[in-house]
From TrEMBL, chain B:
This is ABC transporter domain-containing protein. Keywords: ATP-binding, Cell membrane, Membrane, Nucleotide-binding, Translocase, Transport. The keyword Lipoprotein does not apply. Coiled coil: none annotated. CDD domains: ABC_PhnC_transporter.
């Protein structure tokens, strides 16, 4: 038959060709150059040294030395808080905090006697207020503050992103100029990393949670408004057309035909941003924007690695717990 | 609904004058269509795919802007504001799947509901009661009313669609292939429901169809559309083989149409 003989001559498109090989070869060359620039050789030799040292084939390695001291200082982690009484203002011995007690230690203090020009040693009684879980409680408080920063940032971002998404959605934006402006604003927000905006916001608003909340809010708006808008653009058109035919306004169509459709996706996105903000809130504290990161940075700079250990453990456990909770929550809602 | 304009009795439910629509880079979808639909009549626009049926209905509701021509509903020129005098039933139902049936029906009254009520989906009590009555009229129960549309069958969905089209007490109901995705038995039920519900309210119906048997069974008047022209206009009794083959003569639909005509 003529049809089948013609089919003999068909050429099917092949998934790979010589062009694919060429691209792969070029990629290989570029990654080799880049790996050299990124000092991969040094990284590999250091990791090799560490591996050899850890099985006892080598005396010591740089990684081992660096990490070893920190890790050794980290354990046991600091749970208690012990402060000299004279530094606590105001201090009332009758009203000690819960579960705390006073510890008195005699300290030998040497000082130069100006008359004899000799070193005198005086024995002094020094009182300390000891709170057995004081530091842990303090760190937990900081963690709660961190979660509050993230929650406020997410909430404000969601509230601002909803109307902004309207302006950013090509099919509902009132004017091409408004669309362009809104899109650029959102891209701009998304383009600045939180850590960098926090750096500047701390200069503007001072140390503390305000700078953190604002930094996280800006970035979250940049993310949420874009994805909210894309959901609007991709929503099924049949219900929208039906309401339009009934004379409904754009606002009505968005509320009654678009929002119900995109709500599951919006919930998922909003949970993701909350999740992410909690993790980011611990980081932006490093530049002084409040929360547990600020505490971490302070202790790290003072080489108090036992306290750093407590902080890291609390962060780690919290993020893990929140991950479990949000995963379950998301599954139930969406 | 309180500010509904009093009907002008003499004028037809729908009057189209020289309606023309051509899409960019496409053929003329509607070519100089003039048409009068009398009040309370059930008209079927019969035609194959691409004959201009959908475009005709979409022009009337403003979903498509005609290039030329005039549309008058009950003697008044069509504007966005008088859209409430038209109810529309859609081919793909056009319902918000995640809202309940009742919420979808009430959404039909959105154009006359204040924005804050839309935002909170808090419709006035009269609208709520009316939605319940309409849902009962189209054969659904209280349980259906409070169920998400997603959970309904195709036939039930179109019942909700009809209830929504009726909530503004329209004088004209447009139905764009209302039974295209339904099985034959359900199709017949829906067509009967549409016809009865419209007749009770004295509303005219303009319904596009491609099923000849349904058109014959329910129409008072059949308008045959082919390539954007009206090539047949008359009662079903006059729809003979010659008229049918003229309506369905599109070149891309060869053998099976002969079968349909026969």
């Amino acid at each position: 038959m003529p049809a089948s003989s013609a089919a003999q001559a068909w050429k099917l498109k092949q998934p790979y060709g010589w062009r694919t090989l060429l691209v792969l070869a070029a990629l290989f060359v570029f990654s080799a150059i880049s790996a050299e620039r990124m000092q991969f050789d040094r990284m590999l030799s250091q990791i090799g040294d560490f591996a050899l040292a850890s099985v006892g084939l080598k005396q010591e390695s740089q990684i081992g030395k660096g990490m070893g001291r920190v890790v050794q200082d980290m354990f046991p982690i600091a749970i208690a808080e012990r402060r000299p009484v004279e530094l606590i203002e105001p201090f009332d011995e009758a009203k000690l905090p819960l579960f705390s007690h006073i510890e008195t230690v005699s300290v030998e203090q040497s000082s130069l006697n100006p008359e004899t020009l000799q070193m005198d040693t005086v024995s002094l009684e020094k009182a300390y207020l000891v709170e057995p879980v004081g530091y842990l409680v303090y760190v937990l408080g900081k963690m709660v503050e961190t979660i509050e920063i993230a929650a406020w940032a997410s909430l404000v971002a969601i509230l601002f992103s909803l109307p902004l998404a309207w302006l950013c959605a090509g099919n509902y934006s009132p004017h091409p100029l408004v669309y362009g402006a809104a899109r650029s604003l959102v891209s701009f927000f998304r383009a600045i990393p939180e850590l960098i905006s926090a750096l500047f916001l701390v200069l503007a608003f001072g140390f503390g949670p305000v700078a953190g909340i604002l930094a996280l809010t800006f970035h979250s708006i940049g993310f949420l408004a874009k994805f909210y808008a894309e959901d609007i653009e991709g929503a099924e058109t049949a219900p929208q057309q039906a309401l339009k035919a009934a004379g409904a306004s754009n606002f009505t169509i968005l509320r009654l035909a678009v929002l119900p459709q995109v709500l599951p996706s919006y919930t998922g996105l909003s949970f993701y941003i909350l999740d992410r903000n909690i993790r980011m809130a611990t980081v932006i504290g490093l530049v002084g924007a409040g929360g547990i990161g600020q505490e971490l940075k302070g202790r790290f700079d003072m080489f108090q690695y036992d306290r750093v250990g407590t902080i890291l453990l609390v962060i780690f456990l919290t993020v893990m717990a929140l991950d479990l909770i949000s995963a379950r929550f998301r599954r139930d809602i969406v | 609904m309180t500010d509904r304009l009093p009907p002008a009795p003499a004028s037809p439910a729908l009057e189209l004058t020289a309606l023309t629509k051509s899409y960019r880079n496409g053929p003329t979808a509607l070519d100089d269509i003039s048409l009068k639909i009398e009040q309370g009549s059930f008209c079927v626009v019969l035609g194959s795919s691409g004959s201009g049926k959908s475009t005709l209905l979409k022009c009337i509701t403003g979903l498509v802007t005609p290039c030329r021509g005039e549309i008058r509903v009950k003697g008044r020129p069509m504007t966005r504001r008088n859209l409430r005098t038209i109810g529309m039933v859609h081919q793909d139902f056009g319902l918000s799947e995640r809202l309940t049936s009742a919420q979808n029906v009430m959404a039909g009254a959105a154009a006359i509901t204040p924005l804050w009520r839309i935002l909170l989906q808090a419709y006035p009590l009269p609208v709520q009661r009316k939605a319940c009555q309409l849902l009962a009229r189209v054969g659904l129960t209280e349980a259906h009313a409070n169920r998400r549309v997603k959970a309904l069958s195709g036939g039930q969905k179109q019942r909700v669609g009809i209830a929504r089209a009726l909530i503004t007490d329209p004088s004209l109901i447009l139905a764009d292939e209302p039974v295209a995705s339904l099985d034959p038995r359900t199709s017949a039920e829906i067509m009967q429901l549409l016809k009865d519900a419209a007749r009770e309210r004295g509303a005219a119906v303009l319904c596009s169809l491609h099923q000849i048997d349904l058109a014959r069974a329910y129409a008072d008047r059949i308008i045959g559309l082919q390539g954007g022209h009206i090539i047949f206009d008359g009662p079903p009794a006059q729809l003979d083989r010659a008229a049918l083959s003229a309506i369905f003569k599109a070149e891309d639909s060869g053998p099976h149409l002969k079968f349909a005509v026969a």
